Amino acid sequence: MTATSTPPVVSRQEWLAAIDTLRVREKAHTREGDAIAAARRRLPMTEVDPSTPLVGAEGPVPLADVFEGRTQLFVSYHMWHDGRPAAEQCEGCTFFTGQVRELSYLHQRDVTFAVFCQGPYEESDRYRRFMGWELPWYSVPVGSRERLVAGRHFGMKACYLRDGDRVYETYWTTGRGVEPMAPSYGILDMTVYGRQETWEDCPPGRPQPYETRGQQFREDGRPTAQWARIAAGHDDCLVDGQADAGSSGCCS
């Protein structure tokens, strides 16, 4: 990538002074984020049927069991295109799901993380294995979708609380509200070229090749994260080293 413009060059003293000025705004932003989180903790909640069935690696499982004995549950609702190849699966959900790797810190705070996928379990789980994700993974049967998604859509994130045998939904968000799942965006926001997406307010001449209708998460027709797996020899047409020719799942 060749940039057509770069920031002006100044002395170190001038540079530090400019950063100090910006730091005031950054700290105000952080404090406002803390205040919003405090308000989020004071929201009411709504009850959800704890027996709502899901499908996991061992078969059907009720929502209450997904907590794995903890009191809190964070769910990433992963979009799925039934019967479509790996290259055509949701690039945005792939981007966000793939950045959640280490769960021990959440477990330390009594929070379980799980992915609730829109598609059939066997089909979507093949995708999980191809991507190398070691996350609790469940399929949401059609009959359970209204109880959990309730007029919203997959791609959202939701938080739940278990109080004894009862389960409550405490928060949900979608769109840019899910960005805390993606530290890549936070890192890019600190760089001089930012996310390089067309919506950003950048000085003239900065590189902005990525539109925001999925293109920002794709490269050469695939979700970007797939290319590293293919280069490493992970075939998206294989499951456990065996060709799965009879499946209409993730094979490309």
UniProtKB/TrEMBL annotation:
Superkingdom of source: Bacteria
Pfam family, one: DUF899
Protein name: DUF899 domain-containing protein
